[in-house]
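HUMAN: Please help interpret these tokens:
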Amino acid sequence: IESEPSAEYACEVYDILNLWLRSRPINLIITTDTYALRFALGAGRELFPQVPVVFSAAKVSDAELSNADRPVTGVRERVDVAGTLKLIAQLHPNSGRIIAIADSYTGHAQELAKLASRDAAVLPSGMHIEFVTAPSTEELIAQLRAVERGTPVLYLAFSDASGSRMSRDRVSRVCMAANGDPGCADGACTI
């Protein structure tokens, strides 16, 4: 369960797991996303009572974990926009700007854009963030082609107008399509 599921989808997953688990008991649950962990701790209480959970890349509160009816451990996802901006400034001290990719269609992207705007205060004098968004991948590529080589690019989140999300891998390919071989790495790259 990679994104927030609809109630219908969650019911389908529950029914499938309920059938499957009748003949295959499990002794450990491993999740790799917030919604999968929440499913395991919520609806999963009936499906796999008392089965321990190990999670990664989940955005959950202490309260959610302390209310679990089973052993739960894992690694939480934490967004550190300020730390990322400081690192970009350190690696690109002569750049006057950072291009940030964030769409205007999803709440997640807008939340990250607000964090970047707030955290821009950590940037040295003379360095600022410019946000880039587009209704399609093709238009995003066109905008990135106009960016001067050597400019750092920070990928926050991007979905096109149809709601199709873009992975970090895809962003790397978009950067490459825009300006040759920019050397992208883990959500930040330089054109």
Summary: The CA atoms of residues 14 and 43 lie 7 Å apart. The first strand starts at residue 29 and ends at 31. Confidence is low (pLDDT under 50) at residues 181-188. The two ends are 33 Å apart (CA to CA).
